[in-house]
Amino acid sequence: MNAVILAGGKSSRMGANKAFLKIKGKTFIEVQIELLRKMFNDIAISVNTPLEYEYLNLPIFKDIYPGKGPLGGIYTSLVNSNSSHTFMLACDMPFVRLELIKYLKDLTKEYDVVIPKSEKGLEPLHAFYSKKCIDPIKRELDANNLRMISFFPHVNVKIVELNELTLLDGVKDSIKNLNTMDDYESITKRNY
Q: Helices (DSSP H) in the chain: which residue ranges?
């Protein structure tokens, strides 16, 4: 299976490109790539500004449908993926845990989407998607319906309740995303 890091957002609330914020001397995206390499042979990046990411020496997917947000990034990634399922990860989640990704991956055989659910709701940017999602997502994009879960009624979805995963240590950190400079400063002070 492949993994794609979605880094096409505008980072408007953060005021800086979240992928290049640093933690322990490495950028978020470098930390993610290092971790994902332990599990995936093929890793790509979905972006709208490819030149910024060339130094990472990974395949770069530029949106087929520009300006369609994360759903457009997932669509582009699935079209370009050479795997039946692809793990999609937002670039603003620097504390990703392999244990959670492996747990989700083990459920992919029977489902088109395997997605965790936290107390905040579904986490569509830390989930597995199958190629069977391509056509349903395309229909939503064509209708300009950009809700991340708008195509879910047309595919087989497994929701994994994170509160029920007591065996996985640090599972809540895995889906923690940082949206503002205050979020970022609070984690740097905690010396993650």
A: 28-36, 69-80, 98-105, 134-142, 171-174, 181-189
For residue range 74-102, what is the model confidence (pLDDT) as tens digits?
999 999 999 999 999 998 888 888 999 99
**Which tokens belong to 169?**
């240590």
Tell me which residue range forms the domain holding 95.
2-189
Q: Name 129's Cβ contacts closer than 8 Å, sequence gap at least 6.
A: 74, 78, 85, 86, 88, 112, 113
pTM of the model: 0.89
User: Into how many domains does the chain fold?
Assistant: 1
Tell me the helices (H) and strands (E) count for the chain, helix number first. 6, 10
Do 57 and 45 touch, CB atoms closer than 8 A? no
Amino acid in the structure at residue 16: A
CATH number at residue 76: 3.90.550.10
pLDDT in tens, 98-152: 999 999 999 999 999 999 998 889 999 999 999 999 999 999 999 999 999 999 9
* Backbone phi and psi for residue 179, each to the nearest 5 degrees, phi listed first: -110, -25
Can you say whether the dihedral through the CA atoms of 134, 136, 137, 142 is positive or negative?
A: positive
